[in-house]
Design brief:
- The complex is a heterodimer of chains A (about 550) and B (about 100).
- Chain A is α+β, with helices and mostly antiparallel strands.
- Chain A is about 35% helix and about 20% strand.
- Chain A has 17 helices and 20 strands.
- In chain A, the strands form four sheets. Chain A has a five-stranded antiparallel sheet. In chain A, strands 3-14-15-12-11 form a five-stranded antiparallel sheet. Chain A has a five-stranded mixed sheet with strand order 6-7-8-9-10.
- Chain B is α+β, with helices and mostly antiparallel strands.
- Chain B contains two helices and five strands; from the N terminus they run βββαββα.
- Chain B is globular.
- Classes of the chains: A alpha+beta (about 550), B alpha+beta (about 100).
Chain lengths: ~550, ~100
């Protein structure tokens, strides 16, 4: 994985000291909150319901064991013993003191981490496929390009004050495991006529106005990737609605201008920029590629002893086929039944770091579904790995099932939220696990957001739940038919909302409709698409 | 009643204006009547509170103070999903007060 050079380290160290001075001046009263707020947000420090919250960037979800260890140590030293992995492959600490914040950033900088651009109207953490560099089905490893985009977008003076926040995703497989088309820019690395290039999708997103990004360019040569991305941003920066926060995202611009006109302007800008030397030299991308060279895989056993049914179930559910047939990628579920999605204690983080060192060439990945991946595990080591995970409460065999729920922090932590997300996730996973229905339901992605900002990706859930405030009471809207994958679609609301008990019953009713109507190997989503909303509405409201 | 709340500047802790000082416990909150804006400006300028605001609340028969909105009740007690991190970790029924 990427290693900081002296420039990277100097920039991050300087930023820590700059923030230390800003925080000191705030505490001494030399800065007002109005003056300080944009400065702290540029360093990922929010003020939430109970305390300050620090969001730490995990570039394209990749980190090593030393970094994961420090994340666990920070949880214990400065927070209350845990952290929360987010749907942007980042980590949030919920109980931070302003007087500690600079020290935390200094601890992060020692392991090449920071919280820069995890807030504000700038280009946020670049996201990617959590199986990048490991999966059997990818064209190339997209992470050198994600890293190139990270370097280009870090401190980019032209894009530090965009109309609104901006999210970019890079994948290199046909299968979309990163919600690519629900990003402001989604880049899919593709092959065309023997050449590798980038397909650009622009103007997707969730939030209050969910949109699927349309494709605006089928193929951009990789040696023009940054120039084309910059052209996309430049048109947005010029015309984005700075007058109205709710219409300021690029998806609104692309929608209002129309895909054709937006694309025309991007192409015009791109042509103008091509001879201006925007693109980094080829040597730089070659240098970046060396950091992502595959580890020294060894041939070994390709089969395993499945006599332990619990282990066999975990293997079936939580491992993914690797590019090397003696290895798999193993998913550590942070969704124990009744647990808080995405939360991990300091001890669990340090254990995952230790296991990465022992079994996965020192590498971990964070999934946008709030789980953790050990990308390169020998099949021969799987049972030993599972044994350690299971003993630590990290062996839940539930990837992509109804127990593997995405939930934002919701009203338990977030100042923007209208309703609590986490208790719903806990109760739903408990109910389905207790009834033994999880396995029968198969792949079923349930996603919960506590407000319209949709951090819990409810628009993209096979079943989505949105918490709203209804006359001071929590109320929950149910939606069906969303997908963040290559078969991307936006979920549709079923009808009037429910209270907390009611929405849990409603989830069970729609799954019963599915089980009754399912044909063959259909997933919930397939059945919904075949039979439509009517039978589900009938069961809920009829 | 109207009460003042905000976060401690240094620690971020949720705090409530008692009438003469700030407390971590909502039950210590006092009614600020029409003086909320004045107190709020003075206390913020003195850096004794960060991002303060005025909320509606009610004084219950047992003397406790109940913020009108669920968001402020969550702030007052702590996250409902981590009873151990609330102000009443040994009283699981305390969470019923929030809902």
């Amino acid at each position: 994985m990427y290693k900081y050079d002296t420039y990277d380290q100097a920039m991050v160290d300087a930023r820590v000291e700059e923030f230390r001075d800003q925080a000191r001046r705030r505490l001494e009263g030399k800065l007002t909150e109005d003056q300080f707020k944009p400065l702290r947000l540029m360093n990922g420090l929010y003020l939430q319901l109970h305390a300050y919250m620090l969001r730490v960037a995990i570039p394209y979800g990749t980190l090593n064991s030393a970094q994961m260890t420090v994340l666990g140590d920070i949880a214990d030293k400065y927070d209350r013993g845990y952290g929360h992995f987010t749907t942007r492959q980042n980590l949030q600490y919920n109980w931070i003191k302003l007087e500690d914040a600079a020290d935390i950033l200094a601890d992060l900088a020692k392991v090449e981490m920071h919280a820069i651009q995890t807030s504000g109207n700038c280009i946020r953490n670049i996201s990617s496929d959590h199986f990048a560099g490991a999966s059997h089905d990818e064209l190339i490893d997209p992470r050198p390009y994600a890293e190139l985009l990270r370097q280009w977008s870090s401190f980019h003076p032209e894009f530090t004050y965009l109309p609104r926040k901006f999210k970019i995703c890079v994948i290199a497989a046909e299968k979309d495991r990163a919600a690519m088309r629900l990003h402001d820019i989604g880049i899919q690395i593709v092959e065309q006529d023997g050449a590798i290039g980038a397909r650009f999708y622009v103007g997707g997103g969730m939030g209050r106005t969910p949109m699927i990004a349309p494709m605006i360019r089928e193929f951009v040569p990789l040696d023009q990737l940054i120039t084309y991305a910059e052209a996309c941003l430049r048109v947005y920066n010029r015309h984005g609605r700075r007058d109205n926060k709710y219409k300021a995202r690029i998806k609104i611009l692309v929608h209002e201008l129309g895909k054709e006109e937006y694309t025309r302007q991007v192409e015009e800008e791109f042509a103008h920029m091509l001879d201006q030397g925007v693109e980094p030299p080829l040597a730089e991308i070659e240098r970046l590629r060396t950091f992502f060279a595959p580890p020294a895989f060894e041939d070994g056993p390709k089969t395993l002893d499945r006599s332990d049914p619990d282990f066999a179930l975990w293997v079936d559910r939580n491992t993914h086929r690797h590019r090397h047939d003696s290895y798999v990628s193993a998913v550590i579920s942070l969704k124990p039944v009744g647990g808080i999605p995405g939360d991990a204690t300091g001890d669990q983080m340090r254990l995952m770091a230790k296991l990465a060192r022992a079994y996965s060439f020192d590498e971990l990945r964070i999934m946008h579904t709030q789980n953790v991946v050990l990308p390169h595990v020998k099949i021969a080591d799987l049972h030993a790995l599972w044994t350690e995970l299971d003993a630590a409460g990290l062996g839940a065999p539930n990837l992509d099932t109804i127990e593997d729920i995405i939930a934002c922090p919701g009203l338990d932590y977030c100042s923007l939220a209208n309703a609590r997300s986490i208790p719903l996730a806990q109760r739903i996973s408990e109910r389905f696990a207790a009834k033994g229905k999880t396995e029968e339901l198969g792949e079923l992605k349930l996603k919960i957001s506590g407000c319209i900002n949709a951090c819990g990706h409810h628009h993209a859930g096979h079943i989505g739940i949105l918490g709203v405030d209804r006359k001071g009471k929590e109320n929950f809207q149910l939606s069906l038919g969303g997908s963040e994958a290559e078969d991307v679609s936006l979920a549709k609301i079923t009808g009037p909302g429910f209270d907390e008990d009611g929405v849990i019953d409603a989830v069970e009713k729609v799954t019963d409709v599915y089980l009754g109507a399912r044909e063959g190997d259909e997933r919930f989503l397939d059945t919904y698409r075949r039979i439509g909303m009517a039978p589900f509405k009938e069961a809920l409201y009829g | 009643m109207k009460v003042l709340t905000g976060n401690d500047l240094k620690t971020g802790d949720v705090i409530w204006w008692t009438g003469s000082d700030w407390s971590r416990h909502v039950d210590d909150a006092g009614d600020v009547g029409d003086e909320g804006e004045e107190i709020l400006a003075r206390e913020e300028a003195a850096r004794r509170v960060n991002v303060p605001y005025i909320i509606e609340a009610s004084r219950e028969d047992d003397g406790s103070v109940r913020p009108a909105h669920i968001k402020d009740r969550v702030r007052a007690l702590g996250p409902t999903v981590r009873p151990d991190l609330t102000l009443k970790p040994k009283d699981p029924e305390a969470l019923d007060w929030i809902i």
